[in-house]
Protein: Probable molybdenum cofactor guanylyltransferase
Amino acid sequence: MSRETGRDERTGVVLAGGHSTRFGEADKAVADLAGTPMIRRVVDRLEPVVNGIVVNCRKEQVPAIEDALAGGPDATFAIDPVPDRGPMAGIMTGLRATTGEYAVVVACDMPFVEPALVASLFERAAGREAAVPRLDDRWLQTTQAVYRAAPMIDACERALERGERKITEPLLTLDYVVLDENELREYAPLETFENINTRAEFEVASDRLE
Structure:
Protein backbone atom coordinates (compact mmCIF):
# COMPACT_ATOMS: atom_id res chain seq x y z
CA MET A 1 0.00 0.00 0.00
CA SER A 2 1.47 3.36 -1.05
CA ARG A 3 1.87 6.17 1.40
CA GLU A 4 0.89 9.77 0.76
CA THR A 5 3.54 12.43 0.38
CA GLY A 6 3.23 15.53 2.55
CA ARG A 7 3.47 18.99 1.04
CA ASP A 8 6.88 19.47 2.67
CA GLU A 9 8.21 16.57 0.58
CA ARG A 10 7.06 18.14 -2.68
CA THR A 11 8.99 20.53 -4.93
CA GLY A 12 8.01 22.20 -8.19
CA VAL A 13 10.65 22.21 -10.94
CA VAL A 14 10.02 24.60 -13.83
CA LEU A 15 12.00 24.02 -17.02
CA ALA A 16 12.94 27.28 -18.70
CA GLY A 17 16.32 26.60 -20.32
CA GLY A 18 15.22 26.17 -23.92
CA HIS A 19 16.00 28.72 -26.61
CA SER A 20 12.38 29.31 -27.75
CA THR A 21 13.44 29.10 -31.40
CA ARG A 22 9.88 28.97 -32.74
CA PHE A 23 8.85 31.93 -30.58
CA GLY A 24 11.32 34.42 -32.07
CA GLU A 25 14.23 36.25 -30.51
CA ALA A 26 12.50 36.94 -27.18
CA ASP A 27 12.58 34.49 -24.27
CA LYS A 28 9.06 33.12 -24.05
CA ALA A 29 9.54 32.23 -20.37
CA VAL A 30 9.30 35.89 -19.40
CA ALA A 31 6.97 37.06 -22.17
CA ASP A 32 4.00 39.08 -20.91
CA LEU A 33 0.99 36.79 -21.16
CA ALA A 34 -2.16 38.82 -20.53
CA GLY A 35 -0.36 41.04 -18.01
CA THR A 36 1.73 38.36 -16.26
CA PRO A 37 5.04 36.78 -17.34
CA MET A 38 4.36 33.25 -18.54
CA ILE A 39 6.75 31.61 -16.09
CA ARG A 40 5.10 33.52 -13.25
CA ARG A 41 1.75 32.02 -14.23
CA VAL A 42 3.24 28.53 -14.02
CA VAL A 43 4.91 29.20 -10.66
CA ASP A 44 1.77 30.76 -9.18
CA ARG A 45 -0.28 27.71 -10.14
CA LEU A 46 2.25 25.28 -8.66
CA GLU A 47 2.87 27.18 -5.42
CA PRO A 48 -0.25 25.99 -3.52
CA VAL A 49 0.66 22.30 -3.90
CA VAL A 50 4.44 22.35 -3.36
CA ASN A 51 6.83 23.42 -0.63
CA GLY A 52 9.42 25.05 -2.88
CA ILE A 53 10.11 26.10 -6.46
CA VAL A 54 13.22 25.36 -8.53
CA VAL A 55 13.73 27.03 -11.91
CA ASN A 56 16.06 25.31 -14.36
CA CYS A 57 17.52 27.73 -16.89
CA ARG A 58 20.67 29.09 -18.50
CA LYS A 59 22.81 31.50 -16.50
CA GLU A 60 22.03 34.49 -18.70
CA GLN A 61 18.28 34.02 -18.12
CA VAL A 62 18.43 34.47 -14.36
CA PRO A 63 18.06 38.29 -14.08
CA ALA A 64 14.98 38.42 -16.31
CA ILE A 65 13.35 35.45 -14.58
CA GLU A 66 14.09 36.96 -11.15
CA ASP A 67 12.29 40.11 -12.30
CA ALA A 68 9.37 38.05 -13.61
CA LEU A 69 9.01 36.27 -10.26
CA ALA A 70 9.53 39.34 -8.06
CA GLY A 71 6.88 39.60 -5.35
CA GLY A 72 5.84 35.99 -5.78
CA PRO A 73 6.94 32.69 -4.30
CA ASP A 74 10.65 32.33 -3.59
CA ALA A 75 12.50 30.27 -6.17
CA THR A 76 15.88 28.54 -6.32
CA PHE A 77 17.77 28.52 -9.60
CA ALA A 78 19.35 25.38 -11.03
CA ILE A 79 21.70 26.45 -13.79
CA ASP A 80 22.52 24.03 -16.59
CA PRO A 81 26.24 23.20 -16.18
CA VAL A 82 26.37 22.27 -19.88
CA PRO A 83 23.88 24.27 -21.94
CA ASP A 84 21.74 22.95 -24.78
CA ARG A 85 21.63 19.29 -23.74
CA GLY A 86 17.87 19.17 -23.98
CA PRO A 87 14.96 18.76 -21.56
CA MET A 88 16.20 15.48 -20.05
CA ALA A 89 19.35 17.23 -18.83
CA GLY A 90 17.19 20.11 -17.59
CA ILE A 91 15.04 17.72 -15.57
CA MET A 92 18.17 16.15 -14.06
CA THR A 93 19.67 19.53 -13.16
CA GLY A 94 16.41 20.78 -11.67
CA LEU A 95 15.87 17.64 -9.60
CA ARG A 96 19.40 17.88 -8.19
CA ALA A 97 18.40 21.22 -6.64
CA THR A 98 15.25 19.93 -4.95
CA THR A 99 14.88 19.33 -1.23
CA GLY A 100 11.77 17.13 -1.20
CA GLU A 101 11.64 13.45 -2.03
CA TYR A 102 9.25 14.04 -4.92
CA ALA A 103 9.03 16.82 -7.49
CA VAL A 104 6.62 17.83 -10.20
CA VAL A 105 8.37 18.90 -13.39
CA VAL A 106 6.52 21.40 -15.58
CA ALA A 107 7.66 23.27 -18.67
CA CYS A 108 7.60 27.06 -18.40
CA ASP A 109 5.34 27.28 -21.46
CA MET A 110 2.40 25.49 -19.81
CA PRO A 111 0.48 28.41 -18.24
CA PHE A 112 -2.74 26.40 -17.80
CA VAL A 113 -1.22 23.74 -15.52
CA GLU A 114 -3.95 22.63 -13.11
CA PRO A 115 -3.04 22.46 -9.38
CA ALA A 116 -5.64 19.75 -8.69
CA LEU A 117 -4.02 17.50 -11.28
CA VAL A 118 -0.56 18.16 -9.86
CA ALA A 119 -1.80 17.18 -6.40
CA SER A 120 -3.25 13.99 -7.85
CA LEU A 121 0.05 13.16 -9.57
CA PHE A 122 1.86 13.49 -6.24
CA GLU A 123 -0.67 11.16 -4.60
CA ARG A 124 -0.33 8.56 -7.36
CA ALA A 125 3.48 8.76 -7.30
CA ALA A 126 3.70 7.96 -3.57
CA GLY A 127 5.56 4.70 -3.09
CA ARG A 128 6.54 4.63 -6.77
CA GLU A 129 9.26 6.41 -8.75
CA ALA A 130 7.06 8.49 -11.06
CA ALA A 131 3.50 9.34 -12.06
CA VAL A 132 3.15 10.30 -15.70
CA PRO A 133 0.08 11.40 -17.71
CA ARG A 134 -0.59 9.65 -21.01
CA LEU A 135 -2.55 11.33 -23.79
CA ASP A 136 -4.19 9.64 -26.78
CA ASP A 137 -3.28 6.25 -25.26
CA ARG A 138 0.29 6.66 -26.49
CA TRP A 139 1.95 10.00 -25.65
CA LEU A 140 3.62 10.24 -22.23
CA GLN A 141 3.60 13.83 -20.93
CA THR A 142 6.98 13.89 -19.20
CA THR A 143 7.09 17.67 -18.69
CA GLN A 144 3.99 17.72 -16.52
CA ALA A 145 4.75 14.70 -14.36
CA VAL A 146 5.88 13.83 -10.84
CA TYR A 147 9.18 12.05 -10.15
CA ARG A 148 10.90 10.67 -7.12
CA ALA A 149 14.02 12.78 -7.40
CA ALA A 150 16.86 10.36 -6.64
CA PRO A 151 15.96 7.50 -9.01
CA MET A 152 15.00 9.91 -11.81
CA ILE A 153 18.35 11.72 -11.49
CA ASP A 154 20.16 8.38 -11.76
CA ALA A 155 18.04 7.32 -14.75
CA CYS A 156 18.72 10.60 -16.56
CA GLU A 157 22.46 10.33 -15.88
CA ARG A 158 22.58 6.82 -17.33
CA ALA A 159 20.55 7.81 -20.39
CA LEU A 160 22.75 10.82 -21.10
CA GLU A 161 25.88 8.72 -20.71
CA ARG A 162 24.49 6.41 -23.42
CA GLY A 163 23.98 9.41 -25.67
CA GLU A 164 20.18 9.26 -25.42
CA ARG A 165 18.21 12.47 -25.88
CA LYS A 166 14.66 11.11 -25.99
CA ILE A 167 12.90 12.48 -22.92
CA THR A 168 10.99 9.24 -22.23
CA GLU A 169 14.19 7.15 -22.10
CA PRO A 170 14.76 7.46 -18.31
CA LEU A 171 11.30 6.05 -17.63
CA LEU A 172 12.32 2.67 -19.04
CA THR A 173 14.17 1.86 -15.82
CA LEU A 174 11.72 3.44 -13.36
CA ASP A 175 8.75 2.01 -11.49
CA TYR A 176 6.14 4.47 -12.73
CA VAL A 177 2.37 4.68 -12.86
CA VAL A 178 0.46 6.07 -15.85
CA LEU A 179 -2.62 8.26 -15.62
CA ASP A 180 -4.73 7.90 -18.77
CA GLU A 181 -7.08 10.50 -20.20
CA ASN A 182 -10.16 9.28 -18.34
CA GLU A 183 -8.41 9.67 -15.01
CA LEU A 184 -6.82 12.97 -16.00
CA ARG A 185 -10.21 14.45 -16.88
CA GLU A 186 -11.37 13.83 -13.30
CA TYR A 187 -8.97 16.54 -12.16
CA ALA A 188 -8.45 18.91 -15.08
CA PRO A 189 -9.44 19.74 -18.64
CA LEU A 190 -6.80 18.58 -21.09
CA GLU A 191 -5.85 22.21 -21.77
CA THR A 192 -3.62 21.80 -18.70
CA PHE A 193 -1.12 20.25 -21.13
CA GLU A 194 -1.22 23.03 -23.72
CA ASN A 195 2.22 24.44 -24.34
CA ILE A 196 3.02 27.65 -26.14
CA ASN A 197 5.67 27.43 -28.83
CA THR A 198 4.79 30.13 -31.33
CA ARG A 199 3.61 33.74 -31.31
CA ALA A 200 0.27 32.65 -32.77
CA GLU A 201 -0.28 30.20 -29.90
CA PHE A 202 0.76 32.94 -27.48
CA GLU A 203 -1.85 35.34 -28.85
CA VAL A 204 -4.58 32.70 -28.61
CA ALA A 205 -3.66 32.03 -24.98
CA SER A 206 -3.59 35.77 -24.23
CA ASP A 207 -7.07 36.23 -25.65
CA ARG A 208 -8.37 33.34 -23.55
CA LEU A 209 -6.86 34.69 -20.34
CA GLU A 210 -8.10 38.23 -20.96
In short: DSSP finds seven helices and ten strands in the chain.
